[in-house]
DNA sequence: ACTCCCTGAATTGTATGCAATTTTGCGTGC
DNA sequence: GCACGCAAAATTGCATACAATTCAGGGAGT
């Protein structure tokens, strides 16, 4: 099949005003673009865990040759979103139940750390912003705006990550969250759960504003432990722990 | 230069005794082998941060074509050990000082979690094994066996990771440790530091055996905070010299 | 002498071709 | 009818060829 015969754009065409670039951002390669797209398809649920990722098919779909597809798959494999068996192709990662439990626990601990750091180091302005975001989500709950809440929920948690002031930690948390995304699809279903989630968020925000790191960590663990409930049938989970 | 024209081995040469493989281990691909080898070269310090990773050179060195090299580099880029600028080649990752500080802090927190989990969930036998390993390291300190201690030190920390009972967490911790490895090269230099390190380990082990999660976490933070001291000079050294 | 531009070389990104292995379908024997 | 084995097809792994961009050096212009 003669794939990828589309007219190639003549390049990002560096404008002369780009002489002093704010950030070095030479046009992304096809492999990176592909990796992003495929990753989105996976986290969005369009490609559920277990889906076979055939190189030639992906190449045809995205209008490129197999080479960038292979590189994108390697990237995603290192990220953990896909699984590559040496001569047997790649599939969307499908962790075993025990593994999933481990990832959820790690996620909880990572977020607990972030929340602790938020409580300890966040500035007044940032705390206020977090609180206002939380208040806004409260209105979404009242109005039954489920979709909006789901998006805001992701943003809220990411705010905790970056609020930790530790970019590396934020990346670890974010990466873990993305890897878990395909398994949280059916979450936040009922309106009860929505309200409960918001209330738990409230505890987290309160602890952070109060500057109580231990309380913030604890509140996060409570929150994540309950959200795990939706998949809990999958695996028995190890006991939660407490540390400072 | 016509690289990689060496006679290709007729394959990993699956020995007939391999007919009934204990585990599905289809021979690793060249890209994976390469990634492992390059990663070792980086963590060992043979390729210090900032080293340019030219594809064709690596291909020639390892006797393969550029294709597996590129895939290996993608893998390592996703791991964070190397940095890929879109059209400008790859180099061994050289995080900025601030970033390094973040990574060390995250490392400490990850290990603190692991130690907490060790204290909370480790079985009696495993605790005993950890203690005996610690005792062995004590003898190394007495005898001034610096090299052996360095190796044992890595093993000790990895024992904490796997002792957490959470494989995913262990992977995160291990990956972070590998990324930091190039910046700890000159560590554990003096004998004083050796003894101090061992003493700090002792606090960790004691807390774990006592089942005191909070104390274990605290001891780990103390330990890592002091070991960080040795890299301060190193990190400040190259103030991000502004070359490409 | 310095700057700018232009050209050539080096290097990366992508496509394609071939070899090897896995997978699949079918026929044969039990 | 079912299991086993073999052959064809499909798919991955690797190498090479080509295209495009970046980098380096020199020469003309100011």
Describe the structure.
The structure is a homodimer of 244-residue chains. Chain A is mostly helical and 244 residues long. Chain A folds into 2 domains: 30-92, Arc Repressor Mutant, subunit A (Orthogonal Bundle), CATH 1.10.10; 97-234, Up-down Bundle (Four Helix Bundle (Hemerythrin (Met), subunit A)), CATH 1.20.120. Chain A is built from 9 helices and 3 strands. Chain A has helices at residues 30-43, 55-62, 66-79, 97-121, 124-143, 146-163, 167-180, 191-210, 213-227, and strands at 52-53, 82-85, 89-92. In chain A, strands 1-3-2 form a 3-stranded antiparallel β-sheet. In chain A, a hairpin with a 3-residue loop joins strand 2 (82-85) and strand 3 (89-92). In chain A, helix 4 packs antiparallel against helix 9, helix 5 packs antiparallel against helix 8 and helix 8 (191-210) runs antiparallel to helix 9. The longest helix of chain A has 25 residues, at 97-121. The termini of chain A are far apart. The model of chain A is unreliable at 1-24 and 232-244 (pLDDT under 50). Chain A binds a DNA duplex (30 and 30 nucleotides) through helix 3.
């Amino acid at each position: 099949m003669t794939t990828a015969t589309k007219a190639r754009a003549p390049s990002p065409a560096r404008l002369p005003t780009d002489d002093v670039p704010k950030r070095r951002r030479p046009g992304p390669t096809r492999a990176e673009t592909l990796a992003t797209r495929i990753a989105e398809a996976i986290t969005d649920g369009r490609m559920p865990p277990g889906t076979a990722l055939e190189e030639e098919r992906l190449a045809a779909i995205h209008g490129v040759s197999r080479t960038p597809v292979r590189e994108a798959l390697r990237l995603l494999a290192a990220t953990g979103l896909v699984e590559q068996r040496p001569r047997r192709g790649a599939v969307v990662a499908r962790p075993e139940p025990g593994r999933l439990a481990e990832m959820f626990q790690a996620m909880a601990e990572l977020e607990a750390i972030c929340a602790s750091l938020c409580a300890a180091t966040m500035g007044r302005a940032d705390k206020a912003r977090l609180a206002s975001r939380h208040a806004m989500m409260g209105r979404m709950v009242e109005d039954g705006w489920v979709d909006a809440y789901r998006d805001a929920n992701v943003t809220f948690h990411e705010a905790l990550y970056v609020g930790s002031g530790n970019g590396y930690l934020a990346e670890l948390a974010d990466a873990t969250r993305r890897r878990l995304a395909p398994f949280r699809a059916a979450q936040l279903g009922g309106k009860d759960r929505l309200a409960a989630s918001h209330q738990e968020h409230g505890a987290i925000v309160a602890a952070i504003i109060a500057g109580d790191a231990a309380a913030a960590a604890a509140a996060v663990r409570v929150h994540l432990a309950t959200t795990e409930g939706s998949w809990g049938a999958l695996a028995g989970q190890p006991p939660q722990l407490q540390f400072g």
